[in-house]
Amino acid sequence: MSPLEKMIIQALENEDDDIILAEVLDFYEYLKEKKKRQKDTLWKNIQEDEPTNEEIEIINNYIQREAKDEPYRLSRNSKERELSYLREKSLRDEISALANAKEKGLKEGLKQGLFEGKLESARRFLDILDDDTIATKLNIDVDIIKKLRTETLKK
Question: What digits encode the pLDDT tens for the residues 90-121?
Fold first, then answer.
């Protein structure tokens, strides 16, 4: 045992336990704070560095390995499997809903465009054909043709 250690042990034996405990705890807090500052400094230095190509490759390999291990990890835990299934189902449902909405929107737009084209053709025929003939040829309700004729005459 070194002379310093002997001196510390003798000093500790002579003091009150509460005082010693307080000093030890203060010293412990000091060491903890010092270690934290050192870690923070290291992390700050790491965060400031741009990753090298080798580091990027290591990270990509890790991500690929994790992706390959995911099914195995999930197969061991039924709760994880269920959560994964629900996430996938939710994503598939969302994608399906978006695709259906897009398809429905395209169909509605096409239908509206065709109807507008029929109305435009009907306007051109108003001065040469009667309402029934226009409705029959363009497959539009006669009431719509009559309303269109009324609107055109007002202009």
Answer: 888 888 888 888 888 888 888 899 999 999 99
What mean pLDDT value characterizes the chain? 79
Distance CA 122, CA 135 (A): 8
Dist. CA 4–CA 129, nearest whole Å: 118
Contact between 74 and 84 under an 8 Å Cβ cutoff? The reply is yes
Contact criterion met (CB below 8 Å) for 62 and 70: no
User: Could you give phi then psi for residue 114, rounded to 5 degrees?
Assistant: -65, -40
What does the DSSP assignment read for 23-77? Answer: HHHHHHHHHHHHHHHHHHHHHHHHHHSPPPHHHHHHHHHHHHHHHHHHHHHHHH-
Residues 142, 135 contacting (CB under 8 angstroms): yes
User: What's the half-sphere exposure (Cβ side, CA atoms, 13 Å) at 84?
Assistant: 12
Kindly calculate the radius of gyration of the chain based on its CA atoms and give it in whole angstroms: 41
CA 142 from chain centre, in angstroms, equals 51
Is residue 122 within 8 Å of 140, Cβ to Cβ? yes
Helix (H, G, I), strand (E, B) or coil at 60: helix
**Tokens found for residue 86:** 């629900």
Give the 3-state secondary structure of residue 17. helix
- The pLDDT of residue 1 is above 90: no
